[in-house]
Amino acid sequence: MSATIRKNNATSDTWTTIHPLTPEDSAAIAALRSMVAGMKGKLEGTAARGPFNSIIEHIAAPQGVTFEADAVGGISGWWARVTNGKGAAVLHLHGGWFNWGTAHAYRNLVGHIASSAGVDAFVPDYRLAPEYPFPAAVKDAEAAYRGLVERGITKIALSGDSAGGNLALVLLSVTGRQPSSGGAAPAGAVAFSPVTDLALTGESFATRAEADPYFTLPQAAGLVRSYLGDADPMNPLASPVYANLAGLPAIRVHVGDDEVLLDDSRRYVERAVAAGVDATLDIWMGMPHGFINGVGNLNAATQALKAIGTFLKRQLTK
User: Fold this and answer.
1) Among 137, 145, 199, 229, which residue has the least CB neighbours within 10 Å?
2) Does residue 2 belong to any structural domain of this protein?
3) Is residue 250 assigned to a domain?
4) Residues with Cβ < 8 Å from 2, sequence gap 6 or more?
């Protein structure tokens, strides 16, 4: 890997933790890169929904978790149930660049999050672009959150991966300042490789262009256009990195070092910390986008899930 790709790994801040690549994970990622080499930049448009969902559906199923279809706040989705408790829950927004993904496909990943946190988790089927462009997904995410509150769930944490990380962080700003009547602001949020800047200005689109095994800037730009239409990419409801972050509850962000979206995570957390938020960033060396999907196969995924489980338990029991 070139020096350009690997620059800026060192950090002197107190809010970033860099995790080294283990030999076992190095071998696993090398095999993954070989397997997906011909796919880079090619998942585009609605035709990619089938292949994308098929990949996500192959995430290892968690033990001790049951699944239940439901509609919360008028938004259909799936529960991953680990307890009989009714007072706390995680609301997970799934990834897929706002164009792909389903709650059913993501249920196993959400089950791992629920198991790690020790609480039930709901993943809604928010509306997808291009059929339903911005802000439909934001409205559906908020409706699901309000629906949880209406059910008497008073402690809610948000989580999301990729585009779902975007929605979770947008929802955190919306609900953190405008909690439902009789409800409460979210207890905190976790984002895995969130897309925080739909203007696509992060330097890592250049510095990680070679390292990222999945995405290219032209591909990302096309998917974002499909979602935003004529909307301003710097609208805080579209790009949480441009929002006023002061006063938000605690946030934890995990990202791979080999992602074009690395700076989306780094810049968001930097701004959150500057605004006085309890926010931290975990960078996992050698990891590509969506490495959390490798739970059961990657040490990094297992460790990240354990860390976010500890965080969510703490936030939901305060």
Assistant:
1) 229
2) no
3) yes
4) 210
Cα 71–Cα 240–Cα 205 angle in degrees, nearest 5: 115
Please report whether residue 245 resides in a domain: yes
Query: The CATH number of the domain where 48 resides is what?
Result: 3.40.50.1820
Q: What is the pLDDT of residues 223-236, one digit of tens each?
A: 999 999 999 999 99
Those residues with Cβ within 8 angstroms of residue 310's Cβ, 6 or more apart along the chain or in another chain: none
In a domain? residue 142: yes
List 104, 112, 142, 259, catalytic entry? 259
Q: In what order do the strands lie in the sheet with 188-192?
A: 16-19, 279-284, 251-256, 188-192, 155-161, 88-93, 121-124, 75-81, 66-72
57 tagged catalytic: no
Amino acid 300 reads: A
**Exposure of 163 by Cβ count < 10 A (0-12 exposed, 13-18 middle, 19+ buried)?**
buried
Q: Which of 181-185, 247-251, 284-288, 304-308 has the lowest mean pLDDT?
A: 181-185
Q: Which residues contact 138 (CB under 8 A, 6 or more apart)?
A: 167, 170, 171, 174, 237
Range of the domain at 118: 16-316
Active site residue 259: yes
The answer to whether 164 touches 195, Cβ cutoff 8 Å, is no
- Residue 19: active-site member: no
User: Considering 19, 92, 112, 289, which one is annotated as catalytic?
Assistant: 289
Model confidence pLDDT, tens digit, residues 224-279: 999 999 999 999 999 999 999 999 999 999 999 999 999 999 999 999 999 999 99
| Catalytic residue selected from 116, 162, 173, 239 | 162
User: Structurally, how many domains does the chain consist of?
Assistant: 1
Burial class from Cβ neighbours inside 10 Å (0-12, 13-18, 19+) for residue 289 reads buried
